[in-house]
Amino acid sequence: MRGKLLLALVIGAWVAGTPFMWMVATRNFQVVERVLAEPPAGFEEAVRPLPPENVRAALRYQASTVNRLFFEGWGWTQLLLAAALVGLAWASGQGTAFRTVAVVCALIALFLQLYVVPETIRLGELMDFDRNAGDVAATFWRLHHTYTGLDLLKFFLLIGCGAVLVRKG
Residue 127: is its pLDDT beyond 70? Predict the structure, then answer.
């Protein structure tokens, strides 16, 4: 019983963290647009010497930097959750299908953290202040979509694991 409870806790943490990170990624860039559209007191005076396109580029760079930091940290956190999920799936006597899905989720997290995230970060940094990074941008967006698709798949697989636990009681 304790193993299933811990398993539910790990799945719940992973499922809860995933949409939180989706929100962080999009909100950071929305904040840039909101600050530019409705600058807080003192902001316009502080950035007055800079051309508007430079202010926007600097704010977007800051948002990108925060996203990179969060996604790198979240990736390592996911690997810890993945190890716990796989270990607990075996320790609590889950069936072959459940254990297979746990391993698939772990492999997705591993691939994202060891290849997709670092490469996306590297390409994103190349694009930060280069408006003519066409080939780099195409590869960046391909990796970004790969991350999104695999993350969504992992999210639904984890929800499925949680549903199996709830049904079994």
Answer: yes
How many separate domains does the chain show?
1
pTM for the predicted model, two decimal places: 0.91
Per-residue pLDDT tens for 47-80? 888 888 889 989 999 999 999 999 999 999 999 9
H or E segment to which residue 11 belongs: helix 2-37
> Are 144 and 120 a contacting pair, CB within 8 Å?
yes
DSSP state of 112: I
Domain that holds residue 116: 2-168
Q: Cβ neighbours of residue 141 under 8 Å, at least 6 residues apart? A: none
The answer to whether 137 and 98 have CB atoms below 8 angstroms apart is: no
Calculate the alpha carbon distances from 63 to 31, 33, 40, 107 in Å: 8, 11, 17, 29
- CA–CA separation, 28 and 2 (whole Å): 39
Contacts of 66-70 with CB under 8 Å at 24 or more apart are 66/28, 67/24, 67/25, 67/28, 68/121, 68/124, 68/125, 70/21, 70/24, 70/25
